[in-house]
From TrEMBL:
The protein's name in its UniProt record: mannose-1-phosphate guanylyltransferase
Species the sequence originates in: Paracraurococcus ruber
GO MF assignments: isomerase activity; nucleotidyltransferase activity
Top EC class, one word: transferase
Domain called Mannose-6-phosphate isomerase type II C-terminal: residue spans: 347-461
Amino acid sequence: MILSGGTGTRLWPLSREGYPKQFWPLVTARTMLQETAGRASGPDFAAPVVVCNEAHRFLVAEQLRAAQVDGARILLEPLGRNSAPAIAAAALLLRAQSPDAVLWIMAADASIKDTPALHAALDRAVAAAKVGRIVTFGMKPTTPETGYGYIEAGADVPGAAGVQAVARFVEKPDARAAEDFVAGGRHLWNSGMFVATAATLVAELERHAPDVVRAVAAALEGAQGDLDFVRLGAEAFRAAPSISIDYAVMEKTDRAAVVPADIGWSDLGSWASMWDVAAKDAGGNVAHGPVELVDSSGCYVRSEGILTGVVGLKDTVVITTEDAVLVMPRDRAQDVKLLVERLRAAGRKEATEHRRIYRPWGHYEGLIQGDRFQVKKISVRPGQKLSLQKHFHRAEHWVVVNGTAIVQRDAETHLLRENESIYLPLGCVHRLENPGMIPLTLIEVQSGAYLGEDDIVRIEDTYGRA
């Protein structure tokens, strides 16, 4: 089971609510979601259950397809309710089919370097899960990190070699306590991964968080199939308490156990942790993208396209995207969330959205915006089409620059090739389709008194948005 509901704001401006860090290739050429799914591939694993929010459903489906992950079940949360309701949804779904099924619950956005060691730890966790335990993975701390929760390991679990009972959980200690934990050797970082049978999870949720189970069970009862997705009932799910699995169950249950593991784990929760896990040059720098560094050391510099030069900096983070730049000392990495909160309060769309906006059919990005006009680049994947729609406040002019387009304009149908264009007057009913085998790219020029994205009346839509 993969939890993919996070927004990853501490990796702003790369990770934003509209396209968070699990969908980015942060460590390898594969995205974090694809890396996570890849750890559970092979004959010993069933197809994953992924829980994500409504807005990301097509991103999840497309990235799993690209990674050749077949048969995934994607549960859609109508709104975020933290990890306990998300886990309850998958556990209830699977218990109805196979109560003894063992669930391996993972966040979609963690980095793990040693997959064989992970699978060895997983084998120990599965043995404990089969005797009724809920097992978490405890990472041996390397630094007195205050941004992680800690687990104090207790006595060995009978019948499960290499597994210990959990003595207690400690939520994000202060610096002094974290130093004591590292020195003492009995405390482990809480990785947020869990292993248990579906029956055990549901039983402990019913025991310690009955309101969660009641609401989620009703949401599953009212669930509807939508293409490859299972859409949970919105009204029932909204009634679920917003609570983590740690608070709802793990800190209360007498079945909690931990597998100590050394697997090269990081939650990639800040730009400082990104520097920690990356390969560095002789000066201790990490450079990603078109970056040039001169007389700098200990820096993490990443550019998503714009040439970024750094001269004479030390222990600094510089992140350049198409519409925002972040510069800060590396030891202030946790404070990015303060900046994002300020941007939200100011109503800046850069806090949550990238210039490139993803849709089920492809994506678009703004190029120029002026008084009563704007220019966008639209890319439509092969075989996909936009909704049949109209606008009350704007006209549009489309110019095809790559591929082939079928355009429906009121009662007419037009086939456009490269360097051909069409005008869509205000109020006309229109639709764009890519019938070809390569991506369709066009330039859209909008003109009118109001150019907001909410000026769309969908008449018919392949993706259920009408």
